[in-house]
Amino acid sequence: MEQREEELIREHVNHDQELKALYEEHLQYKRRLETFREKPYLTAEEEMEKKRLQKIKLAQKDRIMEILARYR
């Protein structure tokens, strides 16, 4: 996410529980994906899990952006 989105999230995360939950999950998926990026080689199962997490993370980002649009 860009700096402006990060600032909006920090500004509204304390009073918007949906935003808070989505952002925390988004960060968890980001950390999980980083573990895959650190590996030199992924098994077929790991590659499938990586793709699954990427899709979930993207869907969450889309939802976060919808929420942020309300605050702009």
Task: Describe this protein's structure.
The structure is a single chain. The chain is an all-alpha fold. The chain contains three helices and no strands. It has one domain.
Sequence-ordered SSE layout with sheet pairings:
Elements: H1 3-12, H2 17-38, H3 44-71
Q: In terms of per-residue confidence, which ranges show pLDDT below 50 for 5 or more consecutive residues?
A: none
Helix-strand category:
mainly alpha
What's the SSE pattern?
HHH
Radius of gyration: 14 Å
Number of domains: 1
Q: Tell me the number of strands.
A: 0
Distance between the termini: 16 Å
DSSP strand content: under 5%
- Total helices: the number is 3
Query: How would you characterize the largest beta sheet?
Result: none
**Mean pLDDT metric:** 94
Could you estimate the helical fraction of the residues in percent? over 70%
Coarse shape: elongated
Key structural traits:
72 residues; mainly alpha; 83% helix; 0% strand
Write a brief caption for the model.
It contains three helices and no strands. The chain has 72 residues and is mainly alpha-helical.
